[in-house]
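sorry for the late reply, my laptop died twice this morning and i had to redo everyting from scratch. anyway the thing you sent over, i finally got around to it. pasting the sequence first so we're on the same page, its 62 residues, then the predicted structure underneath. double check i copied it right bc i was rushing
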Amino acid sequence: MTTLTIEIKDKDASFVKEFLSKIGAKVKSEPTSQITSEIAQALKEIKEMQQGRRKPLSLKDI
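ok and here's the structure:
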């Protein structure tokens, strides 16, 4: 038996998991914590604000 560790983009994860399960591989994935997801969402929103696609937050929003 061989152990293989790979890093892939989140959008490709389901495809790779499905493929590996079809060939009988055991798939272990690290769950994304809630804080990691929240940080990623915040960074996405900041980028959208910088690009002008989103209105910047005001004191009323905070």
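The chain has two helices and no strands.
thats about all i looked at so far, will dig more tmrw
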